[in-house]
Amino acid sequence: MMRPARSHPLWLAFVLHRVSGLALALFLPLHFWVLAKALTAPEQLDAFLRLTDNPAVKLAEFGLVFLLAVHFFGGLRLLALELLPWPARHKTLAAAAVALAFFVSGTFFLEAI
Asked: pTM value?
């Protein structure tokens, strides 16, 4: 009988990629709403942008950039899975994708504060 793959690190990489994609899809309507404010009501946009000076919002921006980077680098890993020969070091590539995503989002966070 086959053992479920849910404890495998690559399954966790798949879940992280899927969850980050869903979270980003939920964020997009808010993002487009704020962009629309720039065109239709600039004074409301300015009031909204003053909110971004809050440290909690800066931390949320870090989370958003982390999700975006995880989704991007996880997607690159999946493309490599599809298009390149199957290497034995996929766990290392998955860990490198998360580490690179954390580096990118951490750099953004340090620039934001």
From this structure: 0.72
